[in-house]
Design brief:
The protein has three helices and no strands. It is an all-alpha fold. It has one domain. It is elongated, with a radius of gyration of 14 Å.
Length: about 60
């Protein structure tokens, strides 16, 4: 499970993988940022919580 302190870095690296893939595929500079970045990050975080990769807040509070 990803530690809460490392969650943002982990999600950022996942998004960077997609960013790099899109650049290679399109041959153009791609920079996922702003609302696009936030939306992707939120969706990835929710998916990873559902799969138990990132701990849900309720589980963290219960210890």
């Amino acid at each position: 499970m990803i530690d809460e302190d490392l969650k943002e870095e982990f999600l950022g690296q996942v998004i960077d993988i997609f960013d790099d893939y899109l650049e290679k595929k399109s041959g153009k500079k791609v920079n996922i940022h702003g609302e696009d970045y936030n939306s992707i990050r939120d969706d990835l975080e929710q998916m990873m919580k559902n799969w138990g990769v990132i701990e849900k807040e309720e589980e963290r509070e219960l210890g």
